[in-house]
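Consider the following assembly input.
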Amino acid sequence: MLAVDVKNIKKTFVSKQDNVEAVKDVSFQVKQGEIFGLLGPNGAGKSTTILMLTTLLRITEGSASILGLDVASKDKEVREKIGVALQDTGIDNLLTGRELFSTTCRLWGYSKKDSEKRTTELLELVGLMEAADRRVKTYSGGMKRRLDLGLSLVHSPEILFLDEPTTGLDPGSRRVLWDEIKRLRDNGVTIILTTQYLEEADELSDRIAIIDEGLVVAEGTSDELKAGIGGDVITFAFENNNDLESAKNILKNTVQEKNELRIKVEDGASKIPIYLKDLSSNGVEVSSVSANKPTLDDVFLEVTGYRLEGSEDITKEEEKGDR
Amino acid sequence: MKSNSSFLVQLQILTKRMVLRVVRRPLAELPNLIISAFFLFVYDGALGGVFGGTASGTPFDFAKGNFINFILPVSIVSASLSGAASGIYLVEDIESGVFKRYQSMPISRWAIILAPMNVGALRVLLQSSLILLIGIIIGADPAVGNIGFLIVLSIAFIWGMGFAGYSVAAGVKSGSSQGAQAATFLFFPAIFLAPTFVPREALKGWLETAAAYNPTTYVIEAMRAVMVDGWELDVLFRGYLSAGLFAALTLTLAVLSARKATEKA
């Protein structure tokens, strides 16, 4: 049985002023025991998709099921199967970590005695035992995220939804959370996470769906996606801005990123001497050049036409349709 | 091990959690209590000399010698407005995302809504009781005997729940704690377009008319009846009826707005 089966879901927010199509057409399937990453920029429709799958938003069109249970008609049953840590689910700062765990355990139906036991297990699991009796307002951002993750695990859910679990965290805290997420997957929990970090999607996800403007524009394993665009990416770096501008005119179909020009070609190693000769004969000095296999960053650029991170620094030199 | 918790357990757990929140920020809660006691002392200090014992035998002897008995209902009514905190508690949970966390769990929507109302009710009882206690210490002595305190407390409770319902409806409707806070501005017309300092018949014409349409008037008059005049069942009935109708109206509004808030968008 599939863990998650999403078929052509749409979400339109209707207001007096305007109708906004936050999710236009999203379909994907998640197998049990895998980490499935929804990658996309802010406003792409990732969080709205997660809200629909976690029964918190009504699906406008299409259907989705969790472990065979229809999200729309079996919402209560679905909520029993899933754990949810969303960007906008809050934590009560005035309570201690222990109180939050025990309150959540009791709400999930644990007896007083069992809730104490489960609270201890979870505090240990997310590494918050030492801070258990401190109010949450004294926790760091990373501790709050681990607490949030722990709270979503109280009832041992089969499927876990994590909406941008590491946004705003420092690299160390991010790494700790990644390890925890992988450990959960290794213990059989299916995880659906959204992220706007390419590295996170690459590192964690068994499969990735790239969402842009409410549509799934690519889906597969990280390797499949990279192989899908094929060829190599040659990167030319320039010290002088005039050289960079001249090179843009000489080399076609480039993408600029800061002082670099990137170009996607078949068999990069054999093309480099040809390009260098062209540039040199036009008096353009290149400070360095390299050829690499495409990254997830390149995949994202290929399927959306812009870069996910630092896109404000990118000058798109080519039309998407030309590639 | 785990089985789904019952509605009552959910309500109890959520209420307990909210009580913990309240007691952990006493500075946010104390002013309301202090201001009700403050008004009691100020009203007594400013007006007790005129309308207290010295008014005996004059047309101003409506307090019948004990101005505390006369003015205590005003402080009780203002203390009962603390029920309006219910809406603020609920909206705080909506704003912080805690509300959404609970919505993602298989627990009753009504338990989520009723928990802050419970805490509002506890606040009303606690604050009204404390004001009554202060009143007793400084000489309140109901004309109908000590049962008068219970009657006053019960009317205050119903009235306070009316404000709780109003604040929940206003808070959920506006979706902001400012919206819920705005509910407390009702305090001024509620208290001052009423026979607050003198009986209704002593008010000027326009204010007397306004007071006649203000349910607070009947609540204060019912409390005063048991404190000052004795068993006046028709006055008492009007007081309970006004408080009850107000509470029924606002709680209905609260339920309707809360139902909308918990529906999926």
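The first helix of chain B runs from residue 7 to 23. Ask yourself how this observation constrains the way the partners meet.
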